[in-house]
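> run fold Transcriptional regulator WhiB
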Amino acid sequence: MLLPHQPLQDTAVVPPQRVPSREEAGPWHAEAVCRRDEAGLFFAPSKEPTAARLAREEAAKRVCARCPVMIECREHALMQPEPYGVWGGLTAAERRVVLARRRRRETELQRSARMQAAG
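> ok
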């Protein structure tokens, strides 16, 4: 605060604080909520009954829902692609659906662009 009797040049200018980006803060998975939970919640044991799998996956999704890096985790699993487990709130089957939709949308966009260019 500048007091009326202080000359302007004596006033200290404090530069604004820069918030580091997530990339600068470290890898996204360091902030993942699941790092504090049992890994078995996110990956199926062998020969798991369907009812148990569905219950486990729903519990894993509840953990994902409160995670600050859920989107980064999901994108990682889609780009790898991760073939097993719950990542970013999606099961392997759900990720396959998302990837198929993305491929279909990309194909449609490319077709539309070719039609406009030929136009």
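Residues 27-118 form one domain.
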